[in-house]
Design brief:
The chain has about 100 residues and is of the alpha+beta class. It contains 3 helices and 4 strands, in the order E-H-E-E-H-H-E. Helix 1 runs antiparallel to helix 3.
């Protein structure tokens, strides 16, 4: 099992039309084959500067690789991620 997480800060204010549009686009990532347990999360801790997290799981490394190469994911990265994100940290985990 692979757990893919990305914590990030948007360039736009909370509750802005851009924030709404961004999260509408992220919700469509859940329909990409191989994605399970998809979640959009809001940060509540003051221990870091990130505001949000996307988290999802994949049964295999192959499923994760296929997700990364999926046309819908690539289009999301080019259209939204590249222009809406101020900063981020990607964390990918595998069960021990």
């Amino acid at each position: 099992m692979i757990r893919h997480t990305v914590v990030f800060k948007l360039k736009y204010p909370k509750e802005s039309s851009e924030e709404i549009e961004f999260f509408e686009a992220t919700s469509r990532l859940s329909s990409i084959p191989g994605v399970i347990n998809f979640e959009s999360l809001r940060q509540i801790s003051k221990k870091n500067d990130f505001d949000y997290c996307l988290s999802m799981e994949f049964e295999t490394s192959k499923a994760y690789e296929e997700y990364n190469q999926n046309d819908d994911h690539v289009r999301f990265v080019q259209t939204y991620w590249a222009s809406y994100i101020e900063s981020f940290l990607e964390l990918d985990y595998e069960l021990i």
